Amino acid sequence: MPRSSSRRPPAPSASLSFAPDADPQDAGDAHWDGPSKSQRKREMAALQRLGERLVELSRDKLAQLPLAERLHDAILEAQRIKAHEGRRRQLQYVGKLMRDADAEAITAQLDIWENGSREQAAHFHALERWRERLLEDDAALTAFIEAYPASDVQHLRALIRAARKEAATNAALPQGREPQRKHFRALFQEIKLRHEAAQAD
Questions:
Q1: Compositional bias of type Low complexity: which residue ranges (predicted)?
Q2: Which segments of the chain does DSSP mark as H helices, in order?
Q3: What is the CATH number of the domain that holds 53?
Q4: One domain, residues 199 and 132
Q5: Cβ-defined contacts of 174-179 (< 8 Å, 24+)
């Protein structure tokens, strides 16, 4: 009688265990914009829009804002550019420079111009008149010191001389050349600073 084979049939293969699929959210974590990054994007977009508002302002109003010289010049350049693509690139550059600007002070002043009271408008007109008087009449400096005794007389004289020299240089520029207004703006800022300091006392 033949002996039965002692070999047993092979055991069925154990099923392979696969790890569960990775969570799609986990896979995308490397590219996920967290709240802080989103907030930064919104802030950058707001600064870009603010810069574009500045490009629409007149030069006289720009001179009254606390703008760095590079930003001020970039805004004037954007106003000159007519080609669509060139203007778009320049506006982006303005938006980039806005990151270092005093956006709150600029926005506050724009709000005054757009929605402010007559008192605020009269206040800025008064400062502008002081600048005009100081540039046109030497005797105006004495009146200004009487109105604002804490003023630095030597500093004011230096600002006035520089602004007058700048104005004379601008008057001699050939047609098409952009006038400089650095010292013109600096004088206004000093007048504004003296007025605000007097109001705070």
A1: 1-27
A2: 24-27, 35-55, 59-63, 69-80, 84-97, 103-115, 118-136, 139-147, 153-171, 182-200
A3: 1.10.60.30
A4: yes
A5: 178/76, 178/80
Asked whether 74 and 90 are in contact (CB, 8 A), the reply is yes
pLDDT tens for 17-59 read 333 344 434 444 444 444 477 878 888 899 999 999 999 999 9
pLDDT for residue 79: 95
| Alpha carbon distances (Å) from 9 to 2, 6, 103 | 19, 10, 82
- pTM flag (> 0.70): no
> Hey, is 20 helix, strand or coil?
coil
58: helix, strand or coil? coil
Backbone dihedral angles phi then psi of residue 90, each to the nearest 5 degrees? -70, -35
In this prediction, what percent of the chain has a pLDDT beyond 90? 46
